Amino acid sequence: MLIVQKYGGSSLEDTDRIRSIAGRILEAHRSGHEIVAVCSAMGDTSDELIDLAGRVSGAPPAREMDMLLTAGERVSNALMAMAIRDLGGDARSLSGAQAGIFTDASYGGARIVRVTPVRVRQVLDQGAVALVAGFQGLSRDTDDTTTLGRGGSDVTAVALAAALKADMCEIYTDVDGVFSADPRIVPGARPLAAISSEEMLEMAATGAKVLMPRCVEYARRHGVDIRVRSSFTDRPGTLVSDAVEGAAVEGSYVTGVTHTRSLARIAVAEVADDPAAAAEVLGLLATAGIFVDMVQHIPAGPRSGLVFTVPAGDGPRTVELLERHRERIGCGPTRCDTGMGMVSLVGAAIRSDPGVLATLYRTLAEAGIGVRTVSVSEIRVSVLCLDDRLDDAVRALHRSFGLDAAGEAVVHAGTGR
Amino acid sequence: MLIVQKYGGSSLEDTDRIRSIAGRILEAHRSGHEIVAVCSAMGDTSDELIDLAGRVSGAPPAREMDMLLTAGERVSNALMAMAIRDLGGDARSLSGAQAGIFTDASYGGARIVRVTPVRVRQVLDQGAVALVAGFQGLSRDTDDTTTLGRGGSDVTAVALAAALKADMCEIYTDVDGVFSADPRIVPGARPLAAISSEEMLEMAATGAKVLMPRCVEYARRHGVDIRVRSSFTDRPGTLVSDAVEGAAVEGSYVTGVTHTRSLARIAVAEVADDPAAAAEVLGLLATAGIFVDMVQHIPAGPRSGLVFTVPAGDGPRTVELLERHRERIGCGPTRCDTGMGMVSLVGAAIRSDPGVLATLYRTLAEAGIGVRTVSVSEIRVSVLCLDDRLDDAVRALHRSFGLDAAGEAVVHAGTGR
């Protein structure tokens, strides 16, 4: 098998951890697999470099930030190669450019445009482990080093897995896989054995931090199977694959409960009841780089309201922007309520179960949690509530949808199961 | 003017120093010069990286050491670019590869084989400061990052100055130039205004640490003028140039007094009185990477003695090697005396002044310092003495050859001046 492994910074905190991961890589290699390992920068290296940049410049140019930050992965991958050699194995570290990761020239958040892992293949053909510096690439246009932005090392791993037609892409982290909910909030949360790419995409988009939506999307588009697992244990972790039909948790239509904190609910009054007006509003915010979610167009006669969420930090900017362009858009005043949070249910079977919504409302009502907005899509239901009740909402829903480890599933109202 | 500047790690200890150097670079740029600045890694970065390598591997592979170490210069040059931009200037940082520094594949001590600074020229043509990561290059054979070994950033600067036909190469350090002796030993030592390349080469070869012989040799071969100066002051420093005729210190034939500590004196007995035998001995040591100096072939009938120095740490290995090959070489037993040091006088006029040797012997005799070996070349006289008398020897010679800052030159015995 050809396996691409990716190790995050939390798995590479110090040289002891590097030696331990080297042992793990070597074990997989010695059991007969071809191994490509993508290492992130060690522990807090990236934060330390960002801190240095902040001390010399109020607004560091993106190109130089990329030159700066990519040093961290060169260090960790070179050290990993040394550690593997020291344990009697053979390994070669490659920069993003050497590994053939070519990107556009959007410094700080470059997109991969081509992957030609010729040297990676050469290293594998020599019987050695290929180590690749994650998070970085080379812009062909400018011949400059670029970074892939948040979660970039995961994308590097998935992109290499796709280009090398790997059998598996293992994403190693500090938790045992993708959980049914955040275990810091829900003590009974459990790692999922498997999850479909589609579900994972919704989980990631609604707050599951273990994988970035972009990485899942890339994997889905290229048919790459991902296994999310811990570098601290030998547990199997979670398989993320298109071949998975949906939630593997029995007795529930729901795969996981996710949450996002610190949102603002924006309500634009008197928007013309015309898709063009809503498009105008959303286009304006997209141009400003403001991430909009839970959009609802509420008809109210000839003029209607447009309601959506933005990250709380973007609330004031959003209001300012919409007030400034009020005339052009043709809308009324904009209101912003901060202190909101979103709890979401994700599951491939949600679409087929009308009882999910009923159980959801009943559960929240019993817990005394007010619902501000509900947004339903094929495999996800999201509810906006007050941020300070978010943890209660997550716990209550995780229990009532039968996800708690003990497993006493509540019968769904609509299905009688 | 096109000026290449090089800043060493001691000039870049922290972000405050980086900002201060950024100001210096910008000042030169704003006064109308084109500036290429080569920055070393910050302060102790390289030592820290070497330490990390030591913690994951007993014998880190050279290729991976180079990948590791070159991260330091990427960081410092990117930070410098940010600092310059923050001060209102414009700058772009380039890796060694981007700057067109191409080397052979000798990891850890690569030699520059070609310099094609196309991108450096482009950055200059855009009116910006070009920052280049020192100490590093790209091997065309392997497409791998290489390092140039000790003093590598100086070589980067000189090589760029040669390729760009720069008017001057300024090497910034933490002292005010090339001194007539080590100021830590000789309080009256003074910075030289100018020194010929040939003299500088001998000074560097005999212990002056401010420039490596390799850098001076590269500059001499390509006709690059170097100015060694402090990044902490505005003093002019020392001009190193082929255009300099020799010592600029009036009243003395000697330009500087240098010293090397911790040497071993090796005496090989009964070597056949035949150049081939000496060549055999020296070839053996060269292959073993042992640096030999002060070679003297002492005729003693049909068989003669061969005497030379090696670094004290290489003494035991040298003896072991020569004893092992005694039969092949055709020589007697080898003796090793450690605890030796070498003091040298360097000056373009030494060859023309027979009085130098007489003054040298008289000075050392008066100071009660025993002379073990004397070696005389065109512009240098070296004396081997006991290591624990080395400082006394340096001070006595510095004074008697009229180099002390006060300047009371002793009249040379042979010249009557």
Automatic annotation (TrEMBL), chains A, B:
Coiled coil: none annotated. It catalyses: L-aspartate + ATP = 4-phospho-L-aspartate + ADP. GO terms for biological process: diaminopimelate biosynthetic process; homoserine biosynthetic process; lysine biosynthetic process via diaminopimelate; threonine biosynthetic process. Residues 1-230 form the Aspartate/glutamate/uridylate kinase domain. It is an enzyme of class 2 (transferase). InterPro entries: AceGlu_kinase-like_sf (IPR036393), ACT-like_dom_sf (IPR045865), ACT_Aspartokinase (IPR054352), AKii-LysC-BS (IPR041740), Asp/Glu/Uridylate_kinase (IPR001048), Asp_kin_monofn (IPR005260), Asp_kinase (IPR001341), Aspartate_kinase_CS (IPR018042). One of its GO terms (molecular function) is ATP binding. Keywords: Amino-acid biosynthesis, ATP-binding, Diaminopimelate biosynthesis, Kinase, Lysine biosynthesis, Nucleotide-binding, Transferase. Catalyzes the phosphorylation of the beta-carboxyl group of aspartic acid with ATP to yield 4-phospho-L-aspartate, which is involved in the branched biosynthetic pathway leading to the biosynthesis of amino acids lysine, threonine, isoleucine and methionine. This is Aspartokinase.
